[in-house]
Design brief:
355 residues; ABC transporter involved in vitamin B12 uptake, BtuC
Length: 355
């Protein structure tokens, strides 16, 4: 009996040590994010000294000094132009990365990404509809959000059989719904004017070109609430990733919690796509990268993936607006960088682990 008790104590101590180590890694990633934000605020067509960047932020956040103590152009560039798009990049990176990790855990499939259930195609149709028909009663963002959610809801209804929703059927339904909406987007592109067609194509490439503080106020609450729900129940996602039978054995209702996770992940993805267009690879890559560092425990993997996704999108957005005189769509850079990285992961690891 004594050896068994000793073994249990050692196991608990080892788990506690691992958790402290993972918390330290997560803290380091957050520090890297803060540094990345500072560098990104300083870089651009108009370079600003890093000290002046932090001074500008402090004056706006804690206005203990006169606004005249900094150059007006610094305030405009840092606070009105760069900071909103960097914040949006952070929260979109959080949303797509966390949603990818949730889908991969729920579906137990390493190749699943946030757009698997057709949300990107639905959002693309909604945005294209608003562009082609200017008199459409919805704004482009709201239209994209609604149709993105409708696409996932349609996939769920299509996959529902005898009161259950098999994972394979849900994925197939997502592919079908996505194909239907993609076809509808093609029809709209065919009938669109040249100006509308260029706007649709530009939107589909993804980017943070016209971000304002109003966009932050609209997008951030959705993402924070959805991510909070996912993180609170992340320990149940650990159980779901073991399979439905094991989950039922351990007292977890798989249908209920899969529904919660899918709804939260879909809301995050839909609001992100409606704000910035389709940005590929982030939701596929970042969960794998976080899993390599943190292991399969979603309590630590999801926050790590979220922070890494935020850093990755800030870097890509900074490159997009500094590499050339004309801004490059962020979706192009994430794809160019993401594809080789995933090839490296596949070749170096050979397989992906969930538990």
């Amino acid at each position: 009996m004594q050896p068994r008790i000793r073994q249990l104590k050692n196991s608990i101590q080892f788990d506690s040590f691992n958790e402290k180590k993972k918390a330290a890694i997560l803290g380091f990633l957050i520090l890297c994010l803060i540094v990345t934000v500072g560098i990104a605020l300083a870089q651009g067509a108009y370079k600003i000294p890093l000290l002046d960047v932090y001074k500008t932020l402090l004056i706006h956040i804690i206005p203990w000094g006169e606004t005249g103590s900094i150059e007006k152009i610094y305030s405009t560039i840092v606070w009105e132009i760069r900071l909103p798009r960097i914040l949006l990049a952070i929260f979109v990176g959080i949303a797509l990365s966390a949603a990818g990790g949730v889908y991969q855990g729920c579906f137990r499939n390493p190749l699943v990404e946030p757009y698997i259930l057709g949300v990107s195609s639905g959002a693309a149709f909604g945005a294209s509809l608003a562009i082609v028909i200017p008199s459409f009663y919805l704004s482009m963002q709201l239209s994209a959000f609604i149709f993105g959610c409708l696409a996932v809801f349609g996939a769920y209804l299509l996959a529902r059989i005898k009161g259950e929703t098999p994972i394979i059927m849900l994925i197939l339904a997502g592919v079908i719904i996505g194909s239907i909406f993609s076809a509808l987007v093609s029809i709209l592109e065919y009938v669109a004017t040249d100006a509308a067609l260029r706007e649709i194509v530009f939107w589909l490439m993804g980017g943070f070109y016209y971000t304002t503080w109003a966009d932050i106020g609209l997008v951030v609450p959705f993402i924070l609430i959805s991510f909070g729900v996912i993180w609170i129940f992340s320990w149940k996602l650990n159980i779901l990733s073991m399979g439905d039978e094991e989950a039922r054995t351990l007292g977890v209702h798989p249908e209920l919690y899969k529904g919660i996770f899918i709804v939260a992940a879909t809301l995050m993805t839909a609001i992100s796509v409606s704000a910035v267009g389709i940005i590929a690879w982030v939701g596929l890559m970042m969960p794998h990268a976080a899993r390599m560092i943190m292991g399969p425990d979603h309590r630590f993997m999801l926050p790590a993936a979220a922070v890494m996704g935020a850093i990755y999108l800030i870097v890509c957005d900074t490159l997009a607006r500094t590499l050339t005189s004309a801004e490059i769509p962020v979706g192009i850079l994430t794809s160019v960088i993401g594809a080789p990285y995933l090839i490296y992961l596949i070749r170096s690891k050979g397989k992906f682990s969930f538990g």
